[in-house]
Amino acid sequence: MLSSSARRGAAVLLSAAVLTTLSACGAAPDKAAGTAGDGKSKVQPGAAASAADLGGMDALVAAAQKEGKLNVIALPPDWANYGAIIKAFEAKYKIKVNSENPDASSADEIAAVKSRKGQDRAPDVMDLGIAFARSGAAENLFAPYKVTAWDKIPAGQKDADARWYNDYGGYVSIGCDAAKIPNCPTTFADLLKPEYKGKVALNGNPTKSGSAFGGVYAAALANKGSFADIQPGIDFFGQLRKSGNFIPVESTPATVEKGETPISIDWDYLNAGYAEQFKGKGVDWKVAVPTDGVYAQYYSQAVNKEAPNPAAARLWMEFLYSAEGQNLYLGGHARAVLLPVMTQDGTVDKDAAAKLPQIQGTPAFPASAELDKAKATLAEKWDKALS
Amino acid sequence: MSPSTPTSHPEGTAGGSTTSRRRRRGPRTWLAALPLLAFTGLCFGIPLGAIAFGAVTRTDPSTGATQLTGEHLARSLQGPYLGSLIGSVQLSALTALIGGVLGVLIAQAVVTSRSQALRSAALTASGVLANFGGVPLAFAFIATVGISGVVTQLADLTGFGWNLYSFTGLTVVYLYFLIPLMVLVIAPALDGLRPQWREAAQNNGATGRQFWRHVGLPVLAPSLLGGFVLLFGTAFAAHATAAALVGGSVPLVTLKIADALSGNVLTGQENVALALGLDMILIAGLVMAVYLPLQRRSARWLR
């Protein structure tokens, strides 16, 4: 038995400890603790624009392990293989990954960065839709950082100042349940056929969902539109709606399995994932990239300028753009940005690459201004065309 | 409703003493309400202030300077944004009206039936169903009466022109939780309709229709209106069910706010979303402004 005074002392100590811990949470990261500490590093991890700035990869790994954790946001485990990527990173570097709100949107990520400025819980790295990568860079939210593979990323897919660069993406594709649909459509023109009445769905509302937006853009390209002119795509879906072919229900794994969205326009990596997921469940999911409307879109990675774990954030980027990380994306049916380079130098996972839907030619991307114009047109005209 | 507590009336409000709920209290009794006021100020006042501030200001992304602007509010009342506000009001008013009428009829049947078992079963079921919403509800409907839903296939509903993913479909889905909600809120009021009043009316030779016209409905009016307002508000604020069912093809203001606030496509629309939120608050306020005075006027009968 403790005497009462001893007990009181223990209580005081305990509450002091609790208070210290509480005030430590949410406090700004201790900048001094971020250095590699061995004297070799030239700059703080938070200011490093490449691994070389810190004295090479080994120094970066050491600094990241000293931080011991990484905050990520909006990385669903079943999306582009992120579940496996996080596990592989944790196992390789012994760094704990805190995955917050996996289903968050790009807008939520930017909001988290802004609202938790200087806090320990702020996301370290972001996986963003291209529009948000551009607007976030304009708002000066990202730290410029060049990964080792920087030079291999195509010029059209990276920010000149290295504040963001594309990592993986895919093509707009038409998924189709061959068990229910006798002739699967392979072009946008096909979708207008009367036999697909009440069968064609998008993955959400194009003013909100990136893949649905890509679907409208691709439909525009298929109907004499261009990156600067998305209107034909909106008209196309208006026509689909009038003919009764289009159903506005948002296609999800559940609606695909249930057969409610037997034809779903979505990213090819998601559609390819469904094909694997529902094999043997009465769903024979076929994926075709429509030949008349080819549109690819990539997601971008960026480092939070005020990342609480700056070294771990940079190590994560290095990992994603290493052959190992890129092959993991391929394993999730996503097109890794370094795929062409890796195909040449032989580091690609050939089995995974062979499973991707076939594509001819190289993808083209709309310029910032064209993208802005397309979004403005869509926000203005979509409701009217569809109702 | 709380029982009326006899307290001192410095100013004699003869005749109206039971109607007026405002009472002169001792100098320090307001302290008891302080926690409530603080809670209200914190949990409603601060968000409201933040919404209003965001709706009328713009922050330049590069310089960080904030300035006043009416641009967001103006945009929220134009084009597709205005269309979504109108769509939401139409859907909410229609579903609240249908839900209110059907809810009252069901509640009346339950209240007047002698079966205690039916009564408790109906009220319990209403309590559960009134809270069944969101994506699970949407998916339950998709699986049952969607295009490849079980019932749709069996009864060939599509042949009759049925389409779940439309304004009509959404109305039916909303009624699924609005009718039970109306049953829940109106049943106590129907209980308060004393049998003696009806007997008195009958003794004076009134028909059933006359009883309802001159006694029943006037007494019930505030509760009916209150139920309507509650249903309207519930439908007006609903989001997840509609998002899963109709996406963008039935324009609704909650969907527009979600698109602008947390999408993957539109950037820099946050302030328009806040302006839309402010519009919603104003509409809800207008509806309450109609309801409150009427409610106060005739609440005296039901206690």
TrEMBL record, chain A:
Range of residues in the leader sequence: 1-27
Keywords tagged on the record: Signal
This protein's GO CC annotations: outer membrane-bounded periplasmic space
Any GO MF annotation of the entry: thiamine pyrophosphate binding
Pfam family, one: SBP_bac_6
One Gene Ontology term from the biological process aspect of the record: thiamine transport
PANTHER family membership: ABC TRANSPORTER SUBSTRATE-BINDING PROTEIN (PTHR30006:SF2), THIAMINE-BINDING PERIPLASMIC PROTEIN-RELATED (PTHR30006)
Protein name: Extracellular solute-binding protein
Organism: Streptomyces vinaceus
From TrEMBL, chain B:
GO cellular component, one term: plasma membrane
The entry's keywords: Cell membrane, Membrane, Transmembrane, Transmembrane helix, Transport
Transmembrane segments: 30-53, 81-107, 128-151, 171-190, 219-252, 272-294
Gene Ontology biological process terms, A to Z: transmembrane transport
InterPro entries: MetI-like, MetI-like_sf
Signal sequence annotation: none
Topological category with respect to the lipid bilayer: Multi-pass membrane protein
Domain ABC transmembrane type-1: 85-291
Coiled coil: none
Region Disordered, residue ranges: 1-25
Protein family membership: Belongs to the binding-protein-dependent transport system permease family. CysTW subfamily.
The name this protein goes by in its record: ABC transporter permease subunit
Organism of derivation: Streptomyces vinaceus
